[in-house]
Write a structure and sequence with these properties.
Keywords: DNA-binding. It comes from Streptomyces montanus. This is TetR family transcriptional regulator. By secondary structure, this protein is mostly helical. Helices cover 66% and strands 0% of the residues.
Length: 211
């Protein structure tokens, strides 16, 4: 019978906590301004760790901010996995991705601001939502649910549309975010070859709560 791994010692736990504090501080900075010019001292103070601790974890600010974006993308992806567990239809997964993202501008504002400011540079990342979307596109094409298109090219269209939707949610908070997301989801499904009536119905199915 396999045994669980022994708990990490106090040093390892503190080291991990310090690293996560730095990543969390960098995420906050990215969400607030998207600016990476903050000094290491300012980042360390925000993280409430010593200045010297920074170089125990990161070689540069660039490395830290990249880690912060990856951390945000992974949280984004895990949120989708949790909320859409059990959904098998690739078309419904694609549509739900747009619609949940619009709602996350309100429920997860810091996360979505990081995506807004830095998402384009990570459109083809192997972490976060991109590999999940590529998987769903490949499954949809293989099953005949989507037109026979190159999945990576389709991912470009989906990623660009999603980033535009996120920008719209923050730039125009007066608009009905759910309706805008449903309309965009319907357009994307039709672009992928889903019949119009089917696309419209899928883009308006009930969504799980994000709370």
């Amino acid at each position: 019978m396999p045994t669980s791994a022994p708990p990490r010692n106090r040093f390892e736990r503190r080291r991990a906590e310090t690293r996560q504090a730095l990543v969390r501080a960098a995420r906050q900075i990215l969400a607030e301004t998207g600016d990476t010019s903050a000094s290491i001292q300012a980042i360390a103070e925000r993280a409430d760790v010593g200045f010297g601790s920074f170089y125990n974890h990161f070689a540069s600010k660039t490395e830290l901010f990249d880690a912060a974006v990856v951390d945000a993308l992974e949280e984004f992806g895990r949120t989708f996995d949790e909320r859409l567990h059990g959904v098998d239809d690739p078309a419904e997964l694609v549509a739900a991705g747009f619609r949940l993202s619009a709602r996350m501008a309100d429920s997860h504002p810091e996360l979505m601001q990081v995506l807004r400011h830095r998402g384009l540079g990570h459109l083809y990342s192997d972490r976060g939502l991109a590999p999940r979307a590529l998987r769903d596109l490949e499954r949809g094409v293989a099953a005949g649910r989507f037109s026979s298109v190159e999945p990576t090219v389709a991912l470009s269209a989906l990623g660009g549309t999603l980033l535009s939707l996120v920008e719209l949610r923050f730039a125009r908070p007066d608009l009905d975010g759910d309706e805008a997301a449903s309309n965009l989801a319907e357009m994307v499904l039709r672009m992928l070859g889903v019949p119009p009536e089917d696309a419209r119905n899928i883009a308006r199915r009930p969504l799980p709560d994000l709370d």
